[in-house]
Amino acid sequence: MRLCMLLMRTPSTEEDNARIFGVLGHVQGRDVSVYLLGDGVLCARKRQAPLIGGGIERSLRSGAKVVVGARDLRARGVPATELLDGLEVAEDLEGSFIDDAMERADRVITW
Amino acid sequence: MVNQQKTLGVMIISPPFGNQYADHMCRTISRALDKGYRVEIFLYGDSVHAQMNAQRPKTFYPVGKVLKELIDRGAVVYSCEICSIARGYISGELKDGKKDYSSTKVIEGVQFTTIFGFAEMLNRADKVVYFGGS
Question: pLDDT tens per residue, chain B (134 residues)?
């Protein structure tokens, strides 16, 4: 099963982190894509406390495709050098998400 | 290859301007329309404020203006009848045997329905995306 997730907020608590990324634990990493939009791009920063926003790092390690929106990174002043290794930065995040959600994913989850 | 017949269903519960969910919804729907998909939207709860006519945000993303543009491009926008009555957009009272949905406060093209209309929208949609949160 291919799972496509759109994350628009910061998982700033351990509870959020478990709820949002817990679902990924049941799916093979290569079948997961995570799109970070709006405040969700803040999840892509390096050096976050492991249990706060660490879900993206674990998703990348398990082989998930993680895409982060360039416009929202610029709006929040997050330079590319502060991003986790292995994720993709997309100018057209919404377009990439629509392609994935409508044509490839079996299930779409939004947060 | 994009399937021209596929439908994206969208539900939103967050109001415009208080956060960015309505902005994200409008931009995402715009790209879906660009790619040839049908789009149906259901405004629920405080998100019905997105349907308000003559919004004048000076610096915020112009949700009302963009929503009208999306309708003009083919997006179907349903608004929760009960939510809209509660917030004073429509009366919903019977007039000549029909519910009165006429209003000068609402963007032209918005259609009113109940939560059962949302269930029907879910049946028509190939994928559903939700915008909203705390």
Answer: 455 689 999 999 999 998 999 999 999 999 999 999 999 999 999 999 999 999 999 999 999 999 999 999 999 999 999 999 999 999 989 888 889 898 999 999 999 999 999 999 999 999 999 998 75
Nearest-angstrom CA–CA distance, B20 and A15: 23
Interface of A with B in 1-30 (CB under 8 A): 6, 8-9
A91 touching B (Cβ < 8 Å): no
- A102 chain-B contacts, CB cut-off 8 A: 2-3, 6, 8, 32, 35, 37, 126-127
Q: Which residues of B touch A101 (CB under 8 A)?
A: 8, 127, 129
Q: Please give the residue of chain A at the shortest CA–CA distance from B9.
A: A102
This model of the complex carries an ipTM of 0.91
Q: How far apart are CA A10 and CA A2, in angstroms?
A: 23
Collect all residues of chain B within an 8 Å Cβ-Cβ radius of residue A97.
28
Domains and CATH numbers, chain A: 3-110 (3.40.1260.10)
Query: A47: Cβ–Cβ under 8 A, 6 or more apart, which residues?
Result: none
CATH of B7-131, one of 3.40.1260.10, 2.60.40.10, 2.30.30.40, 3.90.1640.10: 3.40.1260.10
Structure tokens at A111: 């947060």
